Amino acid sequence: MRMNSTERTVVVTGMSTINPLGQDLTEFWTACKKGTSGVKKIEEFYIPDEMSQMAGIVEHLDLSSLNLSPEQLENYDRSLLFALKSSHDALQHSDLKLDSRLNLTNSRWGVFVANAISQISNMEKSFCQQSAKGIYPLAPIRKNSGRRPNSYFFNTTNAEIVNYFNLGCEQVTVVTGCTGGLDAIGHALQAIRKGKVDIAITGSTEAPITPLVVASFSKIGATSTRNYDPGTASRPFDVDRDGFVLAEGCGILILESLEHAQKRGAKIYAVISGIGSVNNCYHMTDIPEPGESIAKASLEAIKDAKIEPEQIDFINAHGSSTPQNDVAESNAFHRMFGPKARDIPVTSIKSQLGHTLSSATSIEVISAVLSLNDNIIPPTINLCSQDSRCELDVVANKARTSPVNCVLKTSSGFSGIHSSLIIERWVA
Amino acid sequence: MGCLNQMNKNKNYTITGYGICVAKGGNRADFWELLCRNETAFSDYHLFGPDHPPQTVAKINNQDIQHGLTKRQLKKLDRFTILGIAATRQVLQTSQFPLENEELRSQCGILLGNNTGGWGFVEPQMAPLYASGMETLSPYVATAWFPTAVQGEVSILFGLGGHSKTYSAENISVGFAFEQALELLQEGVLSSCLVGGSEAPITQLVYNACMSSGLLSETGKYEPYTSQAQGSLLGEGAALFMLESKAQAKQRGAIIGATIEGIGKGANFVESMRNSLAQAQKVAKDVDYIILSARGTMPEDQEEYAAIAQVFADHPQILMSAPKTKYGNLLGASMAIDTVTACLALEKQMVPPTYASKSTILPPPVGQHVVDVPKSAPLNNILINGQDNYGQCLTLLISN
Description:
The complex is a heterodimer of chains A (428) and B (400).
Chain A: E1 10-18, H1 25-34, E2 39-41, E3 54-56, H2 70-75, H3 78-93, E4 109-114, H4 120-131, H5 156-164, E5 170-171, E6 173-174, H6 180-193, E7 199-206, H7 211-219, E8 249-257, H8 258-263, E9 270-279, H9 292-305, E10 314-316, H10 323-337, E11 345-347, H11 350-353, H12 358-374, E12 376-377, E13 393-394, E14 400-401, E15 406-412, E16 417-424
Chain B: E1 13-22, H1 28-36, E2 43-45, E3 55-57, H2 71-74, H3 79-95, H4 102-106, E4 108-113, H5 119-122, H6 126-132, H7 141-145, H8 149-158, E5 165-168, H9 173-187, E6 192-199, H10 204-212, E7 237-245, H11 246-251, E8 259-266, H12 269-280, E9 289-291, H13 298-311, E10 319-321, H14 334-348, E11 350-351, E12 368-369, E13 375-376, E14 381-387, E15 393-399
Parallel strand pairs in B: 4-5, 4-6, 9-10, 9-14, 10-12
Antiparallel strand pairs in B: 1-7, 2-3, 6-7, 8-15, 11-13, 14-15
Helix pairs in contact in B: 3-8, 12-13
């Protein structure tokens, strides 16, 4: 932690999530600790048998707290609806009441919410509307004829969050694929550290369960085809894993400078103390098995946090359940920690939720914060026979009570990016 | 804004090379020629086929894209990645970045702006996907489409392993990329950084989305700062820069180019321009030329003019123009192209004009709007203005 630095300490003062395990923190964490699977068969559209037919699905989305108009409910992309609800709940969780924000006029806000595939649900809907599902060729449409925000712009979701809460603040969307959530949190961390903003709404959101996205991942063999038993398909570190399971969801955190949080008497849930990120320069989708790049990103995060590697007592892994990633991560941890890598508890909640693309990392950061506060590590479920190449202390199938003070969160994504974050217990 | 007693650390970092590929401007020389001659890169293009009226866009002639890629590589990439690679090759050549130096490569990051990703790769596949089934989809969609595709492919092609990100904030995306680059260089996380933007938004669905949201002109004309202003016209292209410390540049014998001395953000141009000046530790009278945002709607254009009048009230010699009237609105790559314009203007000591007739341009409340023909002028400090669709403004200050 930055005790003697001139840069500001950055803390978590609120958070919320919508994901296949729940639509608020309590629902999510209760289900997560129990080792629940949120993965189900996709019923909304036909998927050929040779493709992955399942996903982590948010059922019965409840937006009643948002006061959205019928037009907004119809025109907003599902990922934006997730983000608005989660942001609203996270702000409530942080006890920041926007209608009294006049008390915070000296505060400077930033909104940095990532996504990997823009508002794909609306993009596909607009294609289908304009072409009758591909039957007719597209035709030009008139100016100002749209009622929806521009779904083809990757920054639209982030900007609409700013609009909805009337913040008029600094905003930019980090678009780095599956590491996006972590990268957005890292961006917020740096912005607050450097005094550019005092508070940030950050995280990521995705609603990728569409024909295009399901097909695109299936075509490169990235997703599991264990269609006969969806609840067991996402099985990180298991010898029978065969790919990730796509999922939808959102994770939003409120980050503040420590001074700002203490001044308003906010409850502090954790400290975000370090970020590291590299390119592997290897391949757009493959991860080099030795794990060097993952280790490099993690060691950079540890250095940035000004801690020692020995302080890490829990790894919240990327654990995507692909044959490649899990071995590469294991090798990375052994590079970093040597023989002690076998003793540090590791878990991947993608086993329960599936892989929510950019929002996986923000949801997993939230779970890491909850672990810090509860000293409970949620399980990696579906771990029946651990891959012998992954010599790790994976918290298998049942949650574990364990002292958690310093978490390493890892992530990897297409385009060769590896990003890691350090999250520490707040000690007053 | 920072304490004025502290040195502006941005001064320690310089552009040592840059590359560009836009319509009728596939390299720096051609681009400057386009900016100075009295024509645009726009043409009528039947984006929706011959049965519909054409759209006026600035599309690059494929022969002008010097990407150096094989047919096999091209099959897997969206156009925005191909443009980004073409511009990167120019950067590496002009900066003479030593790719054989593994340490420098591992500490070179890639920070880019983009707003629409590789949708052009995906769009032709949507009809077969929905009409015939998911099996028809190309296996390259997953990697061609993400906005981070350029950064990924460039990092693999040239072995650049440093901290890399892609940002979306419409026309100010590259401003955020430059800001992050300077911070990472100052912190020592990177020793060099490839910074820029790439955009290939001329697709049917993106065009329709931009038109329906009110961004584009329906008249086929891009006439900012006139009473006929009705929006912009889309263009495509890429521009990238190598940014590194002056010390490193000198050590390896690279050319010391322009510096990005100030980056200012705000809820309006008054704030962003003043913040940029403050960071650069300069005053309004230090600025010689403003590259205008040119959103191309009357209210936004007038708002920018009014902001300039406020900030530069005591500087009637200020010059301004909107060169993007020649090559279009490049969305997430917009500020990268503007920065090339600034670099070339500083080199040539010449202000490229707005493409318009003098009789139609509304005079700014202060200063001179350079129209129709380029104007020689002593140039040392240039501001670049940009804005997103939601009113967030960002201003760069580029210095000689």
